[in-house]
Design brief:
- The protein has 311 residues and is an all-alpha fold.
- The protein is built from 13 helices and 2 strands, in the order H-E-E-H-H-H-H-H-H-H-H-H-H-H-H.
Length: 311
């Protein structure tokens, strides 16, 4: 019996750390808000599809298909932010808040510029993506392109929220991200309801109106997010933008690219119907689903491990 207890025993100090304000933060306190935040971010596309299903029979399918590429873009920036989180955690663990602030600043600028370029690029090829890659036709193609053009053009707002979420997560403030995601979903549901069911008259109509409503919800949520981040006194540095330290950039890139490359085994072949599964996917579907929970657990426990290693 003692051997069994010893086998299942673990050092509880590995699942917690003491924050700068003296509070004890556990893995559960970090993981629970992150879990609900992730659910709420995914819920936006579901809510828009449900609302638009009352507007048109084909709208729900069109929006669901367009959201596939939007989710992939969000996943891309999430992985980049995860790599930057490692750099911030290392500097915080070493007591170097200035370098942590510089890393946070560079991540915001880099992801912001990349989002502007990528959003403008894929917005210009909306019809080719929806028609060629996703194999949509007729009215469904027109509705998907109409929705995708608006949301992808203004993808900057959702990208910045993802980056700020990663930064605040590095400082142990995961509840901020949960509150922001909750408010964003509330605004999105309210505006979508006003567009489709029209209890009052507003200058937004149909699919373009729901897409615009989503962007407005993201703008309001981002404004609240910026206010919360500003109160945290992270120490964003303009100097890091004007005179970036290349050693920090190299460390950031080495931490960013592994998580980005780790996305490739999770891409479903259903997103690329014209490509063979053997050419586009590295792992079988069953194995990818088996590894997904493990990847999430490692992602949640990484900040605690980095802090302990740095100290």
């Amino acid at each position: 019996m003692e051997k069994v207890k010893r086998f299942f025993s673990y050092d509880k100090s590995l699942t917690s750390y003491i924050a700068e304000d003296g509070k004890k933060i556990t893995l559960f306190n970090l993981a629970l808000p992150i879990f609900f935040e992730s659910v709420l971010r995914t819920l936006m596309n579901t809510v828009n599809s449900m609302v638009l299903s009352r507007y048109s029979e084909t709208a729900a399918g069109a929006i669901g298909t367009a959201s596939t590429i939007l989710m992939f873009m969000m996943m891309l920036f999430s992985m980049i932010s995860t790599g930057v989180t490692v750099i911030i955690q290392q500097n915080l663990g070493a007591g170097n808040r200035e370098r942590a602030g510089e890393a946070a600043t560079l991540s915001v600028v880099f992801c912001g510029l990349m989002s502007l370029i990528l959003g403008s690029l894929i917005s210009g090829f909306s019809e080719e993506l929806m028609g060629g890659l996703m194999s949509l036709q007729g009215q469904q193609l027109e509705e998907a392109v109409e929705y995708f053009k608006i949301v992808s053009t203004f993808n900057l707002f959702s990208t910045l929220m993802v980056v700020f979420a990663a930064i605040t997560r590095s400082y142990g403030r995961t509840r901020v991200n949960f509150v922001v995601a909750l408010l964003m979903n509330g605004f999105n549901a309210l505006f979508g309801y006003l567009v489709v069911f029209r209890p009052i008259e507003i200058p937004l109509y149909g699919i373009s109106g729901v897409a615009t409503a989503r962007v407005l919800a993201e703008v309001l949520a981002l404004t609240i997010n910026v206010i919360c981040v500003a109160r945290m006194k992270i120490g964003f540095s303009i100097k890091a933008i004007l005179k970036p330290k290349w050693t920090s950039s190299k460390k950031s890139s080495s931490s960013v690219f592994p998580p980005v490359l780790a996305v490739s085994p999770t891409v479903s072949p259903r997103c690329f119907p014209q490509q063979s599964s053997a050419a586009s996917v590295h792992l079988p579907l069953q194995q990818r689903h088996t590894l997904a929970p493990l990847h999430s657990i490692l992602h949640l426990s990484a900040p605690l491990w980095v802090r302990r290693q740095a100290s």
